[in-house]
Amino acid sequence: MTRIATFNVNGVNGRLPVLLKWLGETGYDIVCLQELKTSDEKFPVDAIRNAGYGAIWHGQKSYNGVAILARGIEPLERRRGLPGDPDDSHSRYIEADVNGLVVGCLYLPNGNPAPGPKFDYKLRWFQRLITYGQRLLRDSSASLLCGDYNVVPGPIDAAVPMRWLGDAVYFPESRSAYAEMLAQGWIDAVRRIHPEKGIYTYWNFSYRGGYDRSSGLRMDHLLLSPFLLDRLKNAGVDAETRAWEKPSDHAPAWIEFD
Asked: Domain Endonuclease/exonuclease/phosphatase: where (predicted)?
């Protein structure tokens, strides 16, 4: 069984105890991390290797940043950065070969405040992802695109959908772009396993401590190429991590392959 997870850590150094505890308790085979918020040279590679994982990463001081971890082996880097905009300086995409699987880890722009320049950038980035995704499906049959998409695909993916009508993660244009990826052939693994269940990967921080359970959203996704669908056996979210001490505002989503 191969187990793959994606986790927006919201600062890999500040949340390192959470990350290491989670890795130790779960032992996923492949892990995609987003929002590292650290430069390349300050990525905690020694601590991650001591936890049993090889790693590649694409950092950026204070913002963004993505990484791919593999238990017991070194991921083989295939690409960093999406094609289509040579002037884009954001660290939002990295891709590796891990035991024959092509794994893309992404941190899609949030887009707020919307409408505005940040939302325009989000849609341009999303279109680049859609274009590259078509190429990936054509050239690499066993492929995944995992990460924080900053998109809530539909009402079932929000605990209180009306709260998010003015937010870029729920704008029709964001949802339409995500639907376009699925129309290409990409498969939303968590939704495929749980077609009618409200499942969330993000909750707002609460000013009173803890988190606001009514703010639940599902916007961390694992998209599979059709070739992998028959091997998909299970999927879910490690929601308990959201209640740990000094947690991320996201919880890890995961899948299991035969």
From this structure: 5-250
